[in-house]
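Batch job 17 of 40 flagged for manual review because the log was empty.
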Amino acid sequence: MELGLKRTWPDSNCTIGELFIGGGASRECYILEPPVREIEGMPLAKWKVPGHTAVPRGRYRVIRRFSPKHGKVVPWLTGIPGFEDVEIHSGNTVIDTEGCLLPGMERGNESVFKSVAAFNSLDLKIAGAIESGDEVFITIS
């Protein structure tokens, strides 16, 4: 299963994008992240602010594993150079992200809404794909 995250509304406080499944024309949900700080060609140490930086553009594998912070199994992005513990979980504002991706059914200026519903729908699709033996990847652009 392929997920595509198109970062559409970046600003200095956060980044909001649209998540698509399988290259489809229909948006699955919005995604809220910390601000994009990536500076192409510069070392990670020059631009990363731990817990307050969106992951770099790229294609990453998504797995599901237990989150001690959330007390349940959630999707995790893996293979991100210099980033660990990047989850997809519910939340509404950049304060809730801690570097993770927050799904929402609706978006505000610097927030997403109906996050639990968006998370549950997305997680069900990711879990179904993994349980059927499919690998899941997300491409962030």
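Reviewer: the log was empty due to a logging misconfiguration, but the result itself is present. Helices lie at 44-47, 115-131. Unflagging and moving on to job 18.
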